[in-house]
Structure formats: C-alpha cells, structure tokens
Amino acid sequence: MLTLDYDRLDVRAGTTLLDLGCGEGRHTFEAYRRGADVVSLDLSAKDLVTTRTWTGAMDLAGEPPAGARTAPVVGDLRSLPLPDESFDRVIASEVLEHIQDDAIAIAEIARVLKPGGLAAITVPRWLPERICWAMSDEYHANEGGHVRIYRASELAALCRDAGLEHTGTSHAHALHSVYWWLKCFFGMEDTPIVRAYHRLLVWDIMKKPRTTKLLERTLNPLIGKSVVLYLRKSA
Predict the structure, then answer these.
(1) pLDDT tens-digit series, residues 93-128
(2) From the CB of residue 65, how many other CB atoms can be counted at a distance below 10 Å?
(3) Contacts 24+ apart (CB under 8 A), 141-146
(4) Pick from 76, 72, 4: nearest CA to 39
(5) What's the pTM value of the predicted model, to 2 decimals?
(6) 129 in helix, strand or coil?
(7) Distance CA 189, CA 182 (A)
(8) Are strands 16-20 and 87-93 parallel, antiparallel or unpaired?
C-alpha cells in the first residue's frame, strides 16, 4: 500500500533513497524494485528484520535490477546517523505525527538531502484525523501514538523554514479513512462490521479492481486519510 507517487518523486535505477521510519518496509520495496539504492531507517530493530527478510525474498525472485542495494539502519529521525547531503531522495511517511520535535526531524531530512534533491513527507490529513480524535482517545493517546494533527499549510511552513521548497500536494487512502472511523466509533473494538470492512480493504489491495480505484481517486481530495507534501531542496 503506497502513499506517495514514485514517478512524481522520480525514483529510478541508481537513485540513492532514504526511507525514514520505514516500519516493515512498504515504501522501501517499491524503491528497491525500481533499482534505487535504499537505506531503510527505523527505531525498531524488529521491524527492520522484517524489511530485510522481504528484500531478501525480492532478491531471490530477481525483482530488483542488477546493482540495486538496500541496507537497514536503526536510528532516530531527530539525529540521523548519516552524512550531510548523502541522498537524492528522502521519504518520511506517517512518522512526523509521532514526534514531539518535528522541526528537528525535518531539519535532519534537509541536512541529509543533496542540493536539488527531492523529498516526500506524508502525515494523516487534518479532517479525517480530527474525526478520529473526536470519537476515540484510544486512537491517538497511547505510547508512541499521534501527538498532533497537521494542517498541510503548517507542515509546508515547517519544511520551508528548514530549506525545503513545497512543490506539490496529493492525498491518498480515502477508503482507509472509513475503516478508522468505524474503529473509533466502536471503541477500537474488532466488531463484525470492522472485520468485514478490513476484508474489503485487503481484497482491494490484492486485486486492485478498477471500481474501487476510481472510487478512491474520486474521494481522495475530500477524505483522503493521508496528505503528501512533495519537496525540493534548494540547489
């Protein structure tokens, strides 16, 4: 399940890409499949083991082009163990909403990005997130949970202060907004209707039917669960 547009980010063979807060690697896999040299960074060593397992399976299947490389790194977004200006592209998907010191993390993104390099930052969108917070404290008020709700304009201003020009915006995962609203409405319980809707989402991800893709594209500008900011570091 990809939140951002890799063509818009111009990810190709030979691109050096940093996937920040990669989790179990969903954005790493597509970059690696395109032939990028990917560093996957996360605080969770356990999640990185999963990422490495799947990239190893991709190697066995011959999916990445020859010469593509991937490396897992345990690290904190607020103090990246990486050199200045070392990546062509940086992805930070659904991580800044978990970090108190988000301005420091954005400054680190700018630091490791090469001049002229591109970045994509995704966070939960204001309206769907506000509805979730209104219905359920459990949704966000937990260890490692969401500490803020962003407006895209506020996030763009933080990026601009760090030297990253905001070049475009998109939205994604409208159908997932409904899932989380159902979860919050039922107190985060795994009710039959929640399970049924989850099965629908899994079916949609696996089968990619035209009908639901068209529906989601139509709804994304209205209730897309995630907002994506595309950014460029000044040359």
Answers:
(1) 999 999 999 999 999 999 999 999 999 999 999 999
(2) 14
(3) 144/98, 145/98, 146/97, 146/98
(4) 72
(5) 0.95
(6) helix
(7) 9
(8) parallel
Q: Per residue in 226-235, is it b (16+ CB within 10 Å) or e — as a string?
A: bbbbbbbbee
DSSP assigned state of 62: T
Any idea which residue has 């985060």 for tokens?
Answer: 188
Calpha distance 174→176 (Å, rounded):
5
Other C-beta atoms within 10 Å of 30: how many? 17
DSSP category for residue 19: E
Task: Give the tens place of pLDDT for each residue, 5-22.
Answer: 999 999 999 999 999 999
The closest alpha carbon to 185, from 135, 131, 142, belongs to: 135
Between CA 220 and CA 174 the distance in angstroms is 5
Note whether 140 and 132 are within 8 A (CB).
Answer: yes
Q: Which element (helix H / strand E) includes 57?
A: helix 45-61
